[in-house]
Structures are given as C-alpha cells and as structure tokens.
Amino acid sequence: MLEINNIDTYYGNIQALHDVSISVKEGEIITLIGANGAGKTTTLMSISGIVTPKRGTISFNGEVISDKKPDDIVKMGLSHVPEGRHIFPYLTVMENLDLGAFLRKDKAGIKKDLKHVFELFPRLHERRNQQGGTLSGGEQQMLAISRALMAKPKLLLLDEPSLGLAPIIVRQIFDIIRLINKEDKTTIFLVEQNANLALKVANRGYVMENGRITLEDSAQNLLVNEEVKKAYLGI
C-alpha cells in the first residue's frame, strides 16, 4: 500500500532522513520506533506532504505522492494524526469533526462515520458542543484521531498517540487502534516512543537512529531482540 524508497529529507541544509526505505502492506499495523530526534516525525511529515524529500520517492497504492500537496494526499485516502494533536482549540468537537470530513461530498457516508466515531469514543459525543481546547489531553487525542477518521482514510498515520497521557487512557487509545485496524480494515503506520506498547500492537516494526533505518523485523522478533530490549524497552 505504501512504499518509501530511499528518501532523503532536509530542513534547510540539515539532513533529517538518510536513505530511508519502508513498506506498509494493506491491512497491517507497522510501527516506527526510536529515540527523540531520530527522524520519526519527519518520516510521517514526508509521507503526508508537509515536507518534501529531496531524493527518493514515496508511493501510495502505486501512485507517487512525494510531489503532491497534503490536501491531494488526504483525498487519496491517507490521514495524519500529528504529534501534539493539533486540534482547533476554539472550535467545538463537532466543528473539528466536520473539518475532518471537509474534502468529502458523501453526506450519508459522513453521517454514518460521525456515528461510528461517537461509538468509538462516547466521551466525544458527550462533549460534542464543547470547545476542543477545554477537553482533557486524552479527550483531545480522541478528537484528533476521530477528526482523521472522518476523512475516511485507507491508511492512518499516528504520531505519538500515547504522549502525555495517563496509562488508563493510553490503554483505551490502543484498544481503539486495534479495533480501527481489525474491524474497519484501516491500515495503520504508528510512530510511538513507548516501544513496548507499539510492538505489542504492531505486525512489523522498524527501528530508526539518527535519520536512518537500522533494523526491520516482525514486531514479535523485535520484542525479544537484545539490542532493542536494551535501547528501547528498558530491559
């Protein structure tokens, strides 16, 4: 579904990604783990068109997207939940969700998906007329995921969904990630600093260090890999 082939991405003269290649198959959850500053967020931003790789290509369902604008990429079925949520704080929950569906024209489908996200996150239904900025951190993360789902993505990019959240909320969020993948058949690319949690939910994983992919394997194998355990799992 997604093919990242040998991309180099820069911020000005500073190279953030070096010859990065990643593949995502339809229906799976893959995770990218690594330390802060490793280049994980830059990888997602390169996929969604926020930054443009200087070299290499990114293809989605066989079509090159590394030269496309972010809104065109969303139209193709790829949604990005950014690190730090970035909801619209002065808009209500409903208005945030409406913006998620902004590029869609199928009113019946939008209504159906709105009902679905409220079933996934009942708290958002309770808070639907409340401003996004007045929600708790966990509720804002629920809203950020739901807003992305309102675009009806085939592939969902999730950047640090557990960041700053209480363990009980994190478990709830990750239960929903599994549900979205299994029942909604949404493919998921997960960037997560909690490597233990990410590898337990994923099918496959990649390890990134200093903007380079250093390891790729099944999530199960990475969980027992001695280098990964020492560097990222605290074992």
TrEMBL record:
Keyword Nucleotide-binding: yes
GO molecular function: ATP binding; ATP hydrolysis activity; branched-chain amino acid transmembrane transporter activity
Domain of life: Bacteria
Swiss-Prot/TrEMBL GO biological process terms: L-amino acid transport
SMART domains: AAA (SM00382)
Keyword line: Amino-acid transport, ATP-binding, Nucleotide-binding, Transport
Matches recorded under Pfam families: ABC_tran
Signal sequence, renumbered to the chain: none
CDD domains: ABC_TM1139_LivF_branched
Domain ABC transporter residue range list: 2-235
UniProt-listed SUPFAM superfamilies: P-loop containing nucleoside triphosphate hydrolases
Family: Belongs to the ABC transporter superfamily.
This protein's name: ABC transporter related protein
Organism annotation: Denitrovibrio acetiphilus (strain DSM 12809 / NBRC 114555 / N2460)
